[in-house]
Amino acid sequence: MLAKVTTCAIIGLEGEIVEVEVDTARGLPSFTLVGLPDAAVKESAERVRAATKNSGLVMPGNRITINLAPADLHKAGPSYDLPIAIGILAASEQIPVGTLEGSLVVGELSLDGAVRHIRGVISIAALARLRQFKQAAICPY
Q1: pLDDT for 91-109, tens place per residue?
Q2: Whole-structure pTM over 0.85, yes or no?
Q3: Tally of domains in the chain
Q4: What range does the domain containing 14 cover?
Q5: What is the average pLDDT across 71-99?
Q6: How much of the chain exceeds pLDDT 70, in percent?
Q7: CATH code (residue 70)
Q8: How many CA atoms lie within 13 A of 58 on its CB side?
Q9: DSSP characters for the chain?
Q10: Residue 14's closest CA among 80, 102, 73, 101?
C-alpha cells in the first residue's frame, strides 16, 4: 500500500515542502530510502525500527520503499524520522491514511519512540501557516 506524509526541509532560513511517499510490498525484508538523503536521514531506518518496536507497534517485515520528493532537493538531518515512521504505519494499515490529510509532520525520534526537538521550528511553522495546513506536528523543545 502507498501512503504520503507531508514534511518540511529547511533551506537557509526558509522551509520547503517535502513529500514522504512510503510503499510496502511483499518480498524479502528491506528498507530503501531514495530522494537525495544525507547520512543522518539514511540512519533514520534504525531509529524508526527501534522507536516503532519500543512503542508497541509493528514494523512490517516486508519491502519498504521510501521516496523523499522532490528528489533534487538535498534532505539533511533527523527531522524526517517522524514522517517516515507515520508513513510506514499508514502504508502497513496500522493507522488510517485519511488522518494525514492537511497535516505537516516533522520530528526526530528517540529509540523509545519519544519525539525530540528539531531545528528550524519557526521556519516550519511559518510555512505551515503560509500553505494553510490544518495542523502541524512539530516538537519545538
Answers
A1: 999 999 888 899 999 999 9
A2: yes
A3: 1
A4: 2-137
A5: 93
A6: 98
A7: 3.30.230.10
A8: 8
A9: -EEEEEEEEEETTEEEEEEEEEEEESSS-EEEEESSB-HHHHTHHHHHHHHHHHTT----SSEEEEEEESTTS-B-SGGGHHHHHHHHHHHTTSS-GGGGTTEEE--EE-TTSPEEP-S-HHHHHHHHHHTT-SEEE----
A10: 73
